Amino acid sequence: MTQTPNLPQATISMRGITKVFATDEMETHALRGIDLAIDTGDFVSICGPSGCGKSTLLSLLGLLDMPTSGSYQIEGHEVSGLSLSEAAYIRNEKIGFIFQSFNLIDELTVFDNIALPLRYRRSSIPKAEIDARVQACLQKVDMTHRSGHRPNQLSGGQQQRIAIARALVGNPALLLVDEPTGNLDSKNGDAVMEMLCELNRKGTTLCMVTHDPRYADMAGRKLHLLDGRILDADGAPLQHPQPLRQVAP
Ligand SMILES: Nc1ncnc2c1ncn2[C@@H]1O[C@H](COP(=O)(O)OP(=O)(O)OP(=O)(O)O)[C@@H](O)[C@H]1O
Ligand SMILES: [Mg+2]
Fold this sequence. Notes:
Blueprint: E1 12-22, E2 27-38, E3 43-47, H1 54-61, E4 69-74, E5 77-78, H2 84-94, E6 95-98, H3 110-119, H4 127-140, H5 156-168, E7 174-178, H6 186-201, E8 205-209, H7 213-216, E9 221-226, E10 229-231
Parallel strand pairs: 3-8, 3-9, 6-7, 7-8
Antiparallel strand pairs: 1-2, 1-4, 4-5, 9-10
Helix pairs in contact: 3-4, 3-5, 4-5, 5-6
């Protein structure tokens, strides 16, 4: 596939990743040894039953949370043991998120919602550049005419397009998408998927959780998760090496 020249690289490698959620009463083994490599320009879909660990995997990929053990490298740099602020810095620079429930802020205009990730960057970006990048993203999702509206004045499909624009404004190396069509009817769902496929065709690396087999089939690679493990094509858990190092006790 032809890469858009200014898109950053996204080489992702997970080995033996586990995630245990522990409370006083119980431990939940949400991920039980994930090996996963994603290259720049890939489109990977993740399917599996409720509770199998899909969102947990996405939040680890996006550095919203840290694994219990295992190795996670982005562009060859180990990121599994980073502090929260270091993780937030990398996330802000390299990763875009699209959540199932849009997660837009109703008190802000569409324009300010999209600008938010840029305003959180460590190095301040000049206002003129922020304006230009937000406008470019509004154009990409065909929502220029709504830039002054509040999210709660928009339809579900329109809100999801704004969420996509917000995820794209930082020019992320990796776009993580959790059930992007979960709250949409099939017409709006198809439109959002078309937009995501187009982004991938232009070079954006995409990792998408979906329960819809039609949309999962659009990906170049389909992963099936069951009980915290990735299944191979025959439905058996893939073998994985022992965790390379412990991240937390
Ligand atoms: N913060 C948490 N604390 C404790 N347990 C958690 C936490 N987050 C997730 N879990 C548990 O980890 C397991 C995996 O959850 P996860 O949200 O990844 O599932 P999922 O595959 O995304 O499910 P769904 O399709 O319903 O969204 C579940 O058993 C869930 O209850
Ligand atoms: Mg989930």
